[in-house]
């Protein structure tokens, strides 16, 4: 991949990463509740999920989803149900700065699992990457190397963006201590809204 092409891809990836979505919302919520260091688990899980999404796009799964409308609808429903469930968990979680968040809740694979599943919850992301990535492919160069570079670039940019979001949420922890329950309900409501709207999207 030529340097000029990579720079354009980097800027496009940066714009995509700063666009609100389930993973950035999850990083914001976990950053406020658990702090940016613990939220690294969530971010790492999301990074693994996005890597899988890009890999699926590379292997042509997007073409299958485009042709199999019933399969795509089923995946949308499952992804939507997961986001609704996640929204309920966020809604019911203890407010930042208040008792109730134990070490057991913060540690383990739970946060990483939530990040991973949030990245996989929208099958339309696979279709998006299938349309987005080929714009930057040079047929005269090693295709697998180009895909690897694009995957690593996107994952690293996404991780940095989510870490900044988590750090911002933690920096306003004093405000969240007063309004944290409302913050959780707003974030939880957004997850439910995204999940409920996912099966209805075209």
Note the main attributes of this structure.
202 residues, mainly alpha, 79% helix, 0% strand, globular
What can be said about the biggest beta sheet?
none
Q: How much helicity do the residues have? A: over 70%
User: What is the quaternary state of this protein?
Assistant: single chain
Q: Outline, from the CA principal axes?
A: globular
Order of helices and strands: HHHHHHHHHH
Number of strands: 0
In round numbers, the mean pLDDT is 75
Structural class, by secondary structure, is mainly alpha
Distance between the termini: 33 Å
From the alpha-carbon coordinates, what is the Rg to the nearest angstrom?
Answer: 18 Å
Range of strand content = under 5%
Question: Can you walk me through this structure?
Answer:
This protein is 79% helix and 0% strand. It contains 10 helices and no strands.
In short:
This protein has 202 residues and is mainly α.
SSE topology sketch:
Blueprint: H1 3-17, H2 22-34, H3 36-58, H4 61-67, H5 69-92, H6 103-106, H7 110-120, H8 124-132, H9 143-171, H10 173-197
């Amino acid at each position: 991949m030529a340097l000029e092409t990579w720079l354009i891809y980097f800027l496009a990836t940066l714009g995509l990463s700063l666009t609100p979505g389930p993973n950035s919302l999850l990083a914001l919520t976990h950053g406020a509740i658990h702090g940016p260091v613990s939220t690294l688990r969530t971010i790492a899980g999301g990074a693994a999920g996005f890597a899988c999404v890009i890999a699926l796009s590379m292997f042509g799964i997007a073409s299958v989803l485009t042709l199999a409308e019933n399969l795509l609808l089923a995946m949308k429903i499952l992804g939507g149900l997961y986001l609704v469930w996640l929204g309920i968990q966020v809604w019911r979680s203890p407010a930042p700065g208040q008792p109730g968040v134990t070490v057991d809740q913060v540690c383990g694979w739970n946060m990483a699992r939530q990040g991973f599943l949030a990245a996989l919850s929208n099958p339309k992301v696979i279709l998006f990457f299938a349309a987005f990535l080929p714009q930057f492919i040079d047929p005269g160069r090693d295709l697998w190397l180009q895909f690897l570079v694009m995957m690593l670039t996107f994952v690293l940019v996404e991780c940095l963006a989510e870490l900044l979001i988590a750090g911002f949420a933690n920096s306003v922890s004093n405000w969240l201590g007063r309004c944290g329950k409302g913050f959780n309900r707003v974030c939880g409501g957004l997850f439910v809204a995204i999940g409920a709207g996912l099966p209805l999207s075209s």
